[in-house]
Amino acid sequence: MMEIFLIKLIIAHLIGDFFFQPTSWVKDKERKKLKSGKLYLHVLVHIVLIFIVFLSFNVWKVALSIGVLHLIIDALKSLFQTKKNARILFFIDQVLHFSSIVLVWHIFYNGYLDISFINNTRNWILISGALFLTMPTSIIMKVIIAKWLPESDDESPKSLQNAGKYIGILERALIFVFILTNHFEAVGFLLAAKSIFRFGDLKEAHDLKLTEYVLIGTLLSFGIAIVVSLIIMGLVA
């Protein structure tokens, strides 16, 4: 199967970028940019890994092509990266790397990706349900429980910025996956785990209003996620 070549190229990339690239190399590239010897050593590692995963030197054209593209992408990243855009550039960098791998695979192995799933109604229903449980649900919950938001005289932040919102999104995403894969018992474990983590904070706070606010938010988040997930499961069944 032609797909095995794509899988091997992806494995080589993952090993090269996440296993064989020490933090010291990353910092050296950020500091010296195109003058960094670690940049070129990193690209060489990727080329060697392709030879290793294919167990052949006949793929030198493939290895060289990916090496050149990898060098261009990493060089551009090093030139444009700042402290403010480092996070977004990391994801852009990976998207470009995987895109270049698919391009090389397509050119040298006549690879073809089946994207017929894009026109599948079932997939669009799943996507809509998953999206609804992210920001839309967070906004809906904020509107519902805003009147119960506990007032605090302490202006210093006690938690990470927007942490509660992202925790809620993650827990609803997990519930969505659990229910659609018929693992309803996992929802109970998730609720229990969150309760255990929250118990210490609520116990130390000695604030009944805060406790009630957290319970309302948690149960509302779980409730919406369960109802939406059941509706989506019924639609795609």
TrEMBL record:
Q: Which InterPro entries match?
A: Phage_phiKZ_Orf197
The organism's superkingdom is given as Bacteria
Membrane-spanning residues: 39-57, 87-109, 124-149, 169-193, 213-236
Q: Which UniProt keywords are listed?
A: Membrane, Transmembrane, Transmembrane helix
* Keyword rRNA processing in record: no
UniProt keyword annotation of tRNA processing present = no
This protein's name: DUF3307 domain-containing protein
Q: Specify the taxonomic lineage.
A: Bacteria, Pseudomonadati, Bacteroidota, Sphingobacteriia, Sphingobacteriales
